[in-house]
Known about the structure:
18% strand; globular
Amino acid sequence: MTKFIKIDGLNFHYKVSGKGKNIILLHGWACDLHIFDNLHAFLEKNFKTYSIDFPAFGKSQTPNSVWSIENYTTFLEKFVKLNKIKNPILFGHSFGGRVSILFSSRNYVEKLILIDSAGIKPKRKLNYYFKIYTYKLLKKLIRIKILKNYSKNLMKKYVKKNSSSDYQNANEMQKKILIKIVNEDLKNVMPKIQSSTLLIWGENDNATPVEDAKIMNKLIKNSGLVVLKNSGHYSFLEKQNEFFIIVNNFLQNDK
Length: 255
């Protein structure tokens, strides 16, 4: 059943079904709750399962300000409180993993499953900073009247060539949010996570590489890492049957 809930004056969309312990599924950037349709159907047989459209995605309203991971985590905390959810089990994919990490570092969760999760600030090469400074220079040139039209066209071409698909496909507010969150490093809060944690990663993930998972595995005390062969950033879709078996074993293990 899909529902809407109002938090801080904004309407947010979610889906809930099933009975039992509470599970919350948190999607990645540029996705919505439907990315978890198969997983939701699998879990609802034994758990009360929530799938959420993050603010600015799916059918949820877009915030009026540029949100950080802190804002998204506070939103999740309010969602949990309003729905009287106690000790949830969290699933976080990619961007949803960022929120899951911060939430779990300061709230009790029964279990945590991070899937190809973001949260480690990537090591930047010199050409990255060159691109950033070039972009800032183009923004300044746009303000000069005589160069305005030329600079606008040049910037469009530059952004198309040098920015990620996530940035190019985002609306204006999503772009601002993406710029704010992409460099947020959560390594400092990972040791605070006390819950049993499972890291599931695609062997060929280029967005959040396996090296990130290994760092998380070291920093999160009670954690284990499973790497799925021949899969990428959407390992839970690419290797669905294997993923379901691994998740089921982890959820049934109460040790």
